[in-house]
Write a structure and sequence with these properties.
The chain has about 200 residues and is of the alpha/beta class. The chain has eight helices and six strands; from the N terminus they run ααααβαββαβαββα. The N and C termini lie far apart (about 65 Å). Keywords: Cytoplasm, Nucleus.
């Protein structure tokens, strides 16, 4: 499509999401496809639709499912923290404060999980193998460590043993939210607790 219709790389995305709405019925003038007429555009529309339907890895539908699953696991993480009374700040709140790269959760007070200090938690609706962790996650998590200190990553669909065994230092890798008996919490001062829930009422 980039060649035949002279589209930019960025313009191809909308065509993948809506081929019959975004790919023109007739090729624009001054494009390589113009000499072939409407038949070529009809063929492109059909081919793109079939390619997207058969793409189970990176199609717009798969992206939507991946985003939905990610949000559901983030909700599970937040509910687990609330259940244990662990105060936290969400990624959205951190972004509103001006932070550029943030984990899903920043704890207001650190906790200890199996003897490891945790200041932040990131939720991943995926399985973790060496490729995923080293090539896609390690640099991202180190950025969080540099900003907020040691943290924890939950790969909800599992962590391969050799990666989990290497989760030493500043990033703890787990495949589920820890059991309560594995967590040591600090208690907020009563005044701080009220402020973390929205602030004290004006006198």
């Amino acid at each position: 499509m980039e060649h035949l219709l002279s589209l930019s790389h960025k313009a191809v995305g909308p065509c993948l999401r809506d081929p019959f709405g975004k790919i023109p019925a007739s090729p624009p003038e001054h494009t390589p496809a113009h000499a072939h007429g409407p038949a070529l555009c009809a063929r492109l529309r059909s081919d793109v639709e079939r390619c997207v339907a058969w793409d189970h890895v990176a199609s717009p539908a798969v992206d939507t499912l991946r985003h939905t699953a990610g949000r559901e696991y983030e909700d599970l993480l937040e509910n687990s923290l609330r259940k244990l009374g662990i105060p936290f700040v969400t990624e959205q709140a951190l972004r509103a404060e001006g932070h550029a790269k943030t984990p899903d959760i920043k704890l207001e007070l650190p906790i200890a999980v199996k003897g490891r200090v945790v200041n932040w938690i990131d939720s991943k609706a995926s399985f973790c193998d060496p490729l995923v962790h080293v090539e896609r996650g390690a640099e991202q998590f180190q950025g969080y460590v540099n900003r907020f200190g040691p943290g924890m990553v939950v790969y909800w669909l599992g962590v391969i043993d050799e990666v989990a065994d290497e989760s030493v230092g500043d990033v703890l890798l787990v495949d589920d939210f820890p059991h309560e008996e594995d967590i040591i919490k600090l208690k907020l001062h009563a005044r701080d607790a009220r402020e973390s829930q929205g602030g004290e009422e004006d006198e």
